[in-house]
Specification:
Layout: H1 7-55, H2 69-77, H3 84-90, H4 93-115
Length: 148
């Protein structure tokens, strides 16, 4: 229940409780708190039993922890690690990187070949090293003074 509270925090809480409630009232406060926690647990368990009885016999093995999405998926996949093995085996990172490297090196050699005079249009690729041509005065659309 208190898995995330360390020993230093527990000592701090005890010291604060003694200072706030005093050594005389502290045992009564602890009894009241434990009684309240016990009643909350009993209420929770009775609510779970009521829900199980209302769901019927087909949900007799229903666990409320299954409502957590991660738990539900793990239970449905039966320990398949969410299909990660299939994803890992589906591609080879080294092979992918080698293909990308080859493609980049291949394009650099074609770009240098096109700058030496080889036609870039024959390979079906656009030369990205050239700047686009600026449109001339004649390429502008006609200005319509009445439309503005």
């Amino acid at each position: 229940m208190f898995n995330d509270i360390g020993p230093l925090e527990l000592v701090t809480i005890i010291v604060l409780a003694v200072l706030v409630f005093g050594p005389d009232k502290l045992p009564k406060v602890i009894q009241d708190v434990t009684r309240t926690i016990r009643k909350i647990r009993e209420f929770s368990e009775s609510a779970k039993q009521d829900i199980r009885s209302e769901l019927g016999p087909e949900f007799k093995d229903f666990e409320f922890e299954d409502l957590n999405p991660k738990t539900f998926i793990r239970k449905q996949l039966d320990g398949d690690e969410l299909g990660l093995k299939e994803i890992r085996n589906g591609f080879d990172l080294k092979k992918e990187m080698a293909e990308v490297t080859d493609a980049v090196q291949g394009r650099e050699s074609e770009a240098s070949a096109s700058s030496t005079g080889a036609p870039a249009a024959s390979s079906g690729r656009v030369d990205m090293t050239k700047k686009p041509e600026e449109p001339g005065q004649d390429d502008r659309p006609p200005f319509d003074a009445d439309a503005t």
